[in-house]
Amino acid sequence: MDAVLLAELQALIARHAVPDGSAFRALPNVTLMSAAAPTPPIADVTEPMFALVARGTKRVALADRIFDYSTGQYLIVSVDLPLEAHVAVATPEMPYLGLGFTLRPEAIAALLLEAGTTQSTRSDPPGIAVSDLTNDLVDPVIRLLRLLDRPADIPVLAAAMEREILWRLINGQQGSMVRQIGLADSRMAQIGRAIRWIRSHYAEAIRIEELARISGMSVTSFHRHFRGVTSITPLEYQKQIRLQTARTRLISTAEDVAEVGFAVGYDSPSQFSREYRRQFGHPPGRDGKRLRQSKEAGGTAE
Predict the structure, then answer these.
(1) What angle do CA 112, 134, 92 make, to 5 degrees?
(2) Coiled-coil ranges per the record (predicted)?
């Protein structure tokens, strides 16, 4: 990527981001982030998005798989995934600078229809991948961010620049992933239906046969395609959702640990505590107290 473009991208993000490590929604589909030090991991279900790093390094974990992307690289997430993410490299002298851009299926579908490329390949691109930024992708991102200095131009010009970003992604290295987001009959869309069901019913026992039916596949085909897209099994996906939801509840309230475990679908308090500690490194009670105290103090828990 051209050094001049990278320098302008860095300057724009630094000027408009909030310099405290929190995400700032600069535009309806765009968030900016600046951090002067590494941040603690945050677990959340990430919806389809394009995220770039203008400076520093960000680390994303999907179960036991690690994805690092650094200065001049971007990440694509093409289906709802339970990820744990944090800024891994940042200093006060060289703060981390990043941008996130929401990938809306309807916007991608409209572009594919306009271009006449609406046929699904029925392939199984992964649900997450890292690539290098290119000049033709960074250019519309920069032009979009320039609008933040001229707010009156945003209602007129922003949509066109967002379309150009999507078009560059559709035709970029991860274009097959991005196209699948907008195709209603793609394998990713089929798996997406099962994912949405799991997210809505995470506390219930799941039946693979039912998920396969929702996806319109045989059980064998569903297992294969689900893992191909998400890198994990349906049961592992459900466990990630349960644990992330439990952690959110423990941070926001001082609920009894066993009650939280039951609320997210665990019948055994010991199993809940064991899996929670394996996932987050601390027992649930201690972790919740630690994070609540940090939140009240306005700091970050290490």
Answers:
(1) 125
(2) none
